[in-house]
Amino acid sequence: MLAACGSSAPLPPEDPAARKDLDAFFLRFRQKVQEGQADSLPRYLSRESLNWVDDIRRASRTEPPAYLKERPFYEILAILALRVERRLNPAFDDRPVSLLDKLVVQSWPVRKTLIKTELGESIVRGNTGQIGLRDAPNVPVFQFVREGGEWKFHLAQSLPLILQGAESLARQRKSTHLEQAVYVLEQFGGRTVLAQDLNR
Description:
- Strands 1-2-3-4 form a four-stranded antiparallel sheet, sandwiched between helices.
- The relative contact order is 0.17.
- The chain starts with 15 loop residues before the first helix and ends with a helix.
- The radius of gyration is 18 Å and the shape is globular.
- It has helices at 16-34, 47-62, 65-68, 73-88, 96-105, 108-116, 155-162, 164-171, 177-187, 195-198; strands at residues 119-125, 128-133, 142-147, 150-153.
- It is α+β, with helices and mostly antiparallel strands.
């Protein structure tokens, strides 16, 4: 950690008012997920997360296996989930709202973690915020950034942590990220991944 180095700048002090704002923001976000209001979600996400959603959309349409297998587990899982959905439902609308509905609202591990998890205390440092689990408050699962004075959920940084349990389980049975993502999708998502879903 750079913060431990003597020459680096100290972390900004905790801001209790900002923590209160962050807690209220995350409560609203979780309510939208619980109510299935995917159309509300884009405005709660950071710019980087919206760019990530766009990248996943593009990759789900065109990315060849050689590039796909180099991605981290959580991205491969998202891309394959969209490819299988598109194959099963050719009318699938893959604009951001539909993607977030598929990847957040309808994704059981993501939805469960967001709405059922007992939260630890929020931590705010400058324009970034974190919230961990009550049982593991030092593991910052949920990441946030303040943009234009408003809190936004950093989905792209949070997903790897949300899906860490699924990845660990798959790693015990499969050796590559691609195999692990296929395993999780088939065993827990109830979706069969075909060869055509891997090749683009």
